[in-house]
């Protein structure tokens, strides 16, 4: 695939900072280029939920071909308990365009480690946690060798637990992933998709995501990516506040109270994110 077709901003952004994670069904190669030319920070070719069982071998071949002919993406592989997991990893280990894998239905730390061991050394593994067992084991999963970042499979978690989509009903699970990520020294976790939401509805969902301490969000629609990027980025007012505080600090501002150093650290983080996301002139 010609380099010009890849979203160059997203291609240069470290995955630890990715806000929008777009799942592109591997059921058809027609889904790949629209995803890779979207505003998604990270693209995930989906060989799991998006592909029925009998079609999985063909989808795997489709993904490996794409990642061997110029495309670069993450790939959601099938759960370790399925008959497809080992073949998925054997095939992907030879694909030069593989950015990392998302392991479906992660419930135990060793599942991440076993996955990482079957891939080229250093390939990041994103643990998708989708059940009550996974949530309760999140701290161990976050600390497992090979774990790059945690993600929340909201739909399957709700089916497993009977929880509604009300933010309060999902607050414990989200908080568990945030705390586990911090304990494991990982980037902030990735929230699940808000299916079908666009515009203001999606911005509100991103507000909930950010308020919980999560820093990314899965999505299924290319049209959702830009909204997620905006919703999970520092706001204009935050950027202005950070710039002013950093200017004053550089000019010799004196530490006035115990809150100054935490505010300075926050300003520096906002400034760094604004640089990474190209927001200063947005």
UniProtKB/TrEMBL annotation:
GO molecular function: lyase activity; magnesium ion binding
GO biological process: oxaloacetate metabolic process
Entry binding sites for substrate: 76, 130
Protein's name in the database: CoA ester lyase
PANTHER family the record matches: CITRATE LYASE SUBUNIT BETA, LYASE BETA SUBUNIT, PUTATIVE (AFU_ORTHOLOGUE AFUA_4G13030)-RELATED
Organism this protein belongs to: Arthrobacter echini
Keyword Magnesium: yes
Keywords of this entry: Lyase, Magnesium, Metal-binding
Record Pfam families: HpcH_HpaI
InterPro entries: Aldolase/citrate-lyase_domain, Citrate_lyase_beta/mcl1/mcl2, Pyrv/PenolPyrv_kinase-like_dom, Pyrv_kinase-like_dom_sf
Cofactor: Mg(2+)
Coiled coil: none
Amino acids binding Mg(2+): 130, 156
Highest taxon listed in the record's lineage: Bacteria
Domain HpcH/HpaI aldolase/citrate lyase as annotated: residue spans: 27-185
């Amino acid at each position: 695939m010609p380099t010009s077709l890849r979203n160059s901003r997203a291609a240069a952004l470290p995955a630890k900072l990715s806000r929008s994670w777009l799942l592109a069904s591997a059921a058809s190669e027609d889904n790949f280029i629209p995803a890779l030319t979207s505003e998604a920070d990270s693209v995930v070719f989906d060989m799991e939920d998006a592909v029925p069982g009998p079609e999985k071998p063909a989808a795997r071949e489709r993904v490996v071909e794409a990642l061997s002919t110029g495309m670069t993406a993450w790939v959601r592989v099938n759960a370790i308990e399925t008959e497809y997991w080992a073949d998925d990893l054997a095939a992907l280990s030879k694909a030069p365009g593989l950015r990392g894998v998302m392991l479906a239905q992660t419930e135990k730390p060793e599942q991440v480690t076993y996955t990482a061991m079957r891939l080229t050394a250093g390939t990041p593994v994103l643990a998708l946690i989708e059940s009550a067992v996974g949530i309760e084991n999140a701290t161990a999963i976050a600390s497992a060798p090979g774990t790059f970042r945690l993600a929340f499979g909201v739909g399957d978690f709700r089916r497993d637990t009977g929880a509604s989509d009300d933010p309060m009903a999902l607050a414990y699970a989200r908080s568990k992933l945030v705390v586990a990520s911090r304990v494991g020294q990982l980037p902030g976790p990735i929230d699940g998709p808000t299916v079908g939401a666009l515009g203001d509805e999606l911005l509100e969902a991103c507000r909930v995501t950010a308020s919980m301490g999560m820093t990314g969000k899965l999505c299924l629609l290319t049209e959702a990516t830009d909204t997620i990027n905006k919703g999970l980025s520092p706001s204009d007012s935050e950027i202005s506040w950070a710039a002013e505080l950093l200017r004053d600090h550089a000019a010799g501002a004196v530490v006035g109270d115990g809150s100054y150093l935490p505010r300075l650290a926050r300003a520096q983080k906002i400034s760094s994110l604004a640089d990474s996301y190209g927001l200063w002139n947005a």
